[in-house]
Design brief:
alpha/beta; Rossmann fold; Alpha-Beta Plaits; 2 domains; elongated; binds adenosine-5'-diphosphate; binds magnesium ion
Amino acid sequence: MPPILEAEGLVKRYGEHVAVDGISFAVEEGEVFGLLGPNGAGKTTTISMLTSVLEPTDGTARIGGHDLRAEPTEVKRINGLVPQDLALYPTLSARANLQFFGRIYGLRGRELRERVDDVLEIVALTDRANEPIEKYSGGMKRRVNIAAGLVHQPRLLFLDEPTVGVDPQSRNHIFESVLKLNRERRMSIIYTSHYMEEVELLCTRAAIVDEGRIIALDTIRNLIAMLGGGVIQMGLERLDDEMLAAMRALPAVTAVTLVAPPPSPTAGVAAAAIAPTSDEGGPVDAKPAGPVVKIETRRSQDALVQVVGYLNERDVGFTSIEIFEPNLESVFLHLTGKKLRE
Ligand SMILES: Nc1ncnc2c1ncn2[C@@H]1O[C@H](COP(=O)(O)OP(=O)(O)O)[C@@H](O)[C@H]1O
Ligand SMILES: [Mg+2]
C-alpha cells in the first residue's frame, strides 16, 4: 500500500526566520506517527502546511495519493485537524458545537446526527453532550476539539499536542481515543508532542524535530536502541578487583564502574577518603551500605542474566538492583545536547 502521506522538502520562512527547514517524511496507512520536539521546533508549522492552514514556502506533500497544492479539495477530505485551540461556542452544548462543524463539511439530517453521536462516543462525552461547553473542564473542551476534527471521518488525523494543559482523566481519555481510532477504525494519525512518554506509548514511529529539521526518524525501539542497552545499578555484598574484571568480561557488559565505596575503612584508602564520616571519624550510617556498581550493557536483559549467573557462581549476594533503560528523552539529549523541556 502506498503511504498515506509523503512530505517532500517542506519549508516555511517568515522573512529571515526559517520555521521549517526542509522536512521530508512518509507515514504509512494505519500508522500512529509522532512528531516529537521542543517548543518552537516547527511541529505546528509543519502540520499547518500539511493541512492547508499555511502555504508552504517550498516543498509539497502527497496525501492519499493527491498533491497538497494541486488538489486541495481532495486533500481536505482526507485530512482531519485537531489544533491546540479551536473556537467553540461556550453557551452551546458539545452536541450543538459538533453539529455546527459537521454542517461545515456538508453533513445534514440523519447522517449529521449519527456522525455527531459517534464522535461523542469516541471521546467519551456522550453523557455530558447536552451541557453548555462553558461548564466543561479544559480537558473536556479539548476532547470536543478532537471530536470536531473527526465528524467528517478523515483517513488521516493530525493531533497537535492534544494533552497540553489537560487534567489526567481527560489525558487518559485522549490516549484511549487515539488508540481506538487507530486500531478499530484503521485511522492513520500524526501526533505532535514534546512529551516523550506519550510518543513512546502511542506511536509506532517518530521523527525527532529540532530547529525546523528532522534530526532522527525511526521506530521508537530503534531510536532508543541508538543509545545502547541500558544501565544496571547493583548493590553487592562484597567486591574485589577480580570480580570487577570478570564482570567487565561478560559478553553483554560494556563497562563496570564503582559508584559507591565499600563501607569498611579497611576496604581501601580511596574508598575511605570519599566515604561520609561522622565527627568521630566513623561511618555516619549505622547500617553500612555495600559497594554499588554501575554496569553499562549492550542489552540490559542479557547482561542481567550473565551478571547474576556470575554472582551465583561466586556465591556473592546482591543487596539492591535498579535498571535504567534509555528513553526518548535521553535520545533527544544525546542528539542535540538539549533537554526536551526547557
Ligand atoms: N506567524 C509566525 N511568524 C513568525 N514566526 C513564526 C510564526 N509562527 C511560528 N513562528 C516561529 O516558527 C518556529 C516554529 O514554531 P512552531 O511551528 O509553532 O513550533 P512548535 O509547534 O514545534 O512549538 C518558532 O521559532 C516560532 O517562533
Ligand atoms: Mg506547536
